[in-house]
Structure formats: structure tokens, C-alpha cells
Sequence to fold (597 residues):
Amino acid sequence: MANYKYNVLVCGGTGCHASQSETIIGNFKKLLTDKNLDNDVQVVSTGCFGFCEKGPIVKILPDNTFYVSVKPGDVDEIIAEHIVKGRKVERLLYIDPKTNEHKEDSKHIGFYKKQLRIALRNCGFINPESIDEYIARDGYAALAKVLEQNDPQATIDVIKKSGLRGRGGGGFPTGLKWEIASKNKADQKYMICNADEGDPGAFMDRSILEGDPHSVIEAMAIGGFCIGATKGLVYIRAEYPLAIKRLKTAIAQSREYGLLGKNIMGSGFDFDIDLRYGAGAFVCGEETALIHSMEGKRGEPTFKPPFPAQEGYLKKPSNVNNVETFANIPVIINKGWEWFSAIGTEKSKGTKVFALAGQINNVGLIEVPMGITLREVIYEIGGGIKNGKQFKAVQTGGPSGGCLTEKFLDTPIDYDNLIAAGSMMGSGGMIVMDETSCMVSVAKFYLEFTVEESCGKCSPCRIGNKRLFEILQKITQGKGTMEDLDLLKNLSKVIKDTALCGLGQTSPNPVLSTIDNFWDEYLAHVMDKKCPAGQCKALKRYIIETEECIGCTACARSCPVGAIKGEKKMPHEINQDICIKCGACYEKCKFNAISIK
Ligand SMILES: Cc1cc2nc3c(=O)[nH]c(=O)nc-3n(C[C@H](O)[C@H](O)[C@H](O)COP(=O)(O)O)c2cc1C
Ligand code: SF4
Ligand code: SF4
Ligand code: SF4
Ligand code: FES
Fold:
């Protein structure tokens, strides 16, 4: 990038892509050429910057100016003002909602202040389709070091000492996993990357592959060398077209540069990578199901042992790691295990990427050091709860996780603390809920997902989860009993203890954690037939307040079932037996005479 006067980095991640970032890039290129500035200014399409809430993002180097919510029509002004006259376009800078100050550089924006980007180090900095840009930021230096040292166990020891644990959910120590796979003798072994990412709302792995595919390729080659595998496979969902495109481009470039293929860097080590596509089943993220799916079989899990390291793809020893786990590897080798293990908590080292979503001001992709508190993530990085509402719960761990309340906000985030609190790290989904969320409905939402995604192989999951879902449905319809609550608890425990794979073993977690933390809310639904958050339609009652009603008749005319009666200029009344709770009258009344109880 050094030869250009300015580098214009435009986010090419899926979120910004959907908000016309391609057109923004096209406009920059065309206008710069028209103005004969194309030799002075380079335009680069990067991976996600993380701050998707404010996308499309345009960053200008060398002055680090960070423009937010840029539209194709803004390009002219950015070139005329910033590039030509060196004056920043104030109206496109981020405005701090607390101080109302314009922030020129992303490092002064609250969203970024407490973040530490290791796995995402290159996302938003380089053109993911340029191997040269990756190499310019130490890319493939770790592979060169490992191959030159030619001591797989020494590299495994570095990963072991770094304390890196698998980012795919389980948190298994990566170095130990590699060591086990390295010790199994076989004529062929496989290094597999799990890029299935099936959690609803998660996009950590997709963003890494879209923004920095070479980091995963380099790490897979290092891992392959360590365990004695010459073949790598990336299992990626077909719904990730941009990530697939960038990965394919990166693999082709690595082959061209001799960084994949035969005799890599003259070391005698052969390694190449192929892609396998998933059809989007959540269970196919589970490693044994993933391997079966890659073999062309039904994506169903099998009991472990045997573990993939013993009998994996095509019955050969295989090592499965998550995308984010891989993305950490080259930096650990380049900077040393001491550096990495100094970040985080005693048993959870390094950082974790989260997809921050829900009722929060700053939705996006964040990477934070382990040990940061939920409060820091929600209020400092996330900018607090939307529309000034009250925080109610945060859901971590995706469909297998749990909902944590206010009392856990100061808990340092790590694998063990989240489990102790009744949730889990999972692969990095983090959904924040405000006071308007009904926690019984939240549990029902996740159960509906797991019922849909269960492969059906074992009865506790196939039948048990369906029954759990039906009980939750009954409760939200106001038909639940105290016996149902007992049944929910008992059945959840049985499913956890008896299901075959991780999907079933964790699927009751949203139910159990909401029962633990929001028992009153369950009781209100069952005993009082009320939804405290006012979300369960069947439990809503629309009432006309006699004193407020002026008898304008607007509500009666809007009611689709004729449930409202009353004389003109006289208070009206709703017949609760007929009302279908559509809310039309509530919307229509201009006198705030209708309330929801
Ligand atoms: C139902 C289910 C879905 C899973 N989905 C994923 C996934 O999408 N991505 C992933 O990396 N791991 C997923 N896992 C965990 C994998 O089985 C496996 O532990 C992981 O890929 C290992 O990589 P790691 O050690 O680097 O975390 C899932 C597990 C279960 C039980
Ligand atoms: S627990 Fe569910 S997803 Fe796992 S094997 Fe049993 S039925 Fe299939
Ligand atoms: S719209 Fe409001 S004020 Fe008018 S009749 Fe209905 S409840 Fe009364
Ligand atoms: S909620 Fe719908 S059905 Fe019920 S009274 Fe109002 S308009 Fe009629
Ligand atoms: S996709 Fe552009 S900032 Fe995330």
C-alpha cells in the first residue's frame, strides 16, 4: 500500500455488500479515474470491520479516517473534499451518542476501545483476494518458520503452551487435540476446518473467511504438518457464497505461490485443500455428522469414541477445528505462546469473537479478550440497550446456551464462568434482550429451532424436544399447569442425560436457564395467565378505559370481528370472548383509551 498517497478501504463484508458497498467501490474507481487520481489512490474491498450497524464503512489511510453509513452518492464529496483538499467530510464521521462529538478515527469509538483483534486482525485491513497483502502483514511467515524448524512436536508444544482452546463451542485444548491426532499412525490423515456455523445469527466464521481466508489456509497447512496430514478439507455451508468465492481465490493463489501443493517452500511437505459444501443443517456442525456429510452420507452424528482423531473422514485419523481456532494459529507462532497466554483468564487464553445482536445499540462483530465482563461488552462496546429500555437478559452459546440476568453482568467471560453461570461460550452468538422480551417465548424460540434441526436419530432428542416445545407452546397460550412446569424440568434433565450428541444434550439449556432465572415469569403465565412482557398474544387483553374513551367509534369500525360495541360519544366496550387480539383497535385509538393488560 506504500506507493499510494491514499488507500480507500471499503467494507466488502456481506452486511455492507447488501447495502451497496460494491456500488460505492465502483463509484470510487470510476470517479478517481475520471479525475486522473487513480495512480495516487488505491481502492480496496476489505472484509467486515465489525461495526455492521453503521455500515457501509469506508476507511481512509494513512489518516485512519472512519466514515460510517456511506452511500454511493457520498463518494463524489469524499473525493472532492478528503482526497483532493485534505478536508474530512464531517457529516460522515461517527457521532458519539453520549457526547455528540464527531470521532475521526475508529480507535476513539466506544465500539472499538475495549476490543482486541487477533483472529480478526486482518479483517478490514487487507484485500482478502490479495495474497500479497496477506504476506505483507506477516502472512505465511508462521508456516515458513514451522517448516524450517521441521519439528512437528515443537510446534504442537507451542500451541499447547499458548492455552488456545477450540472456538467452535467445546473449548477443547487445540494443542492436545493435534498431539492426539499426530500420534495415531495411518497412511493418510486429514486436517478438517469446520466452517458450518449453524447458530442462528452467528457470522464470526463467515467474516473471517470473507475477510482473511489466507489465515485459515496457512493454519490448516501448519496443522497438517504437525499431525502428518497431506490433505485439508473445509466443510462450508453453501449459503456462504462470498466466503466460498474468497476461499477458492485464496486457495488458487496459495497454490500459485507454492504455499499449497507439493513440496511447500522446498521442505518436502505436501499439503492441499479442497472444499466440501454443507446444505445448512445445524447438526452437520457436530464433527461426526460433519464427517458423514463430507463422505456423502446422511449428516447424522455417531457416538464418540471413536473420536475423529482415531477414526474420522473415510475412517482415517482426522483433526477437526473451527475457523476461528485456525485464525489464531499463525499469530501464536509468530508472536510466541508467552504473548498469547498473557491475554485472557487463567483457563481461557486469548480472545473470543462474538456476533453481538438483539436489542443493543451497536450490533456487529466484536473480538474481546477473555475475562472482559458482560457489562463492558453490552454497555461500552454495544453502547447499551436500544431506545433507553432496561436490560433483561443476554443469551450466549446459541441454541445450546442459556439466558443470563443482571446478576451475571460483572462475571468475567470465559469458558468455565459461563458454564458455571448456566450458559456457555458456544461459538460466539450473543443476543441481548430488553424488558419487552418474554423469556418463556425465548425458550420456545430456541426449542423450535432444535426440534426443526434434530436429525431424529435418537428418541430423547427427536421426541423429547418436541414434547418440550409443545409444553412451552401450551404455557404461552395460557393453558399451562403447574404439572407442566414440573414436566418441563424433569424432561429437560432426561434429554440432557440421554441424547446421543451435543445437540440433544444441550438443547434443554434455554429452558433450564430461563426456569432458573425467570421462574416468576413462568408462574405468571401459568398461575395468573399473564405474560409480564406483554408478548404472548393469547394472554393479551385489550381493555377500553371508560374514563378516557370519548366514543369516537374509530376502534369499532377497525375491529375485524365486531368485538367492540358502544353508542357514538359514549364509552365503548370490548367483548373478550370474541376479540382475536389483533391490536387494530389499539393502533387506531387516538385518545390512548385502550390499554393492554
Ligand atoms: C449440534 C452441534 C453443532 C455444532 N456446530 C459447530 C459449528 O457450526 N462450527 C464449529 O466449529 N463447531 C461446531 N460444533 C462443535 C464441533 O463438533 C467440534 O467440536 C468443533 O468443530 C471442533 O473445533 P474446535 O476444537 O476448534 O472448537 C458443533 C457441535 C454440535 C454438538
Ligand atoms: S441428539 Fe438429536 S441431533 Fe443428536 S443424534 Fe440424537 S436426534 Fe440426532
Ligand atoms: S377509538 Fe378510542 S376513543 Fe374512540 S371509541 Fe375507541 S376507545 Fe373510545
Ligand atoms: S384487538 Fe382486534 S379483535 Fe380485539 S377488539 Fe381490538 S380490533 Fe377487535
Ligand atoms: S459487513 Fe461491513 S462492517 Fe460488517
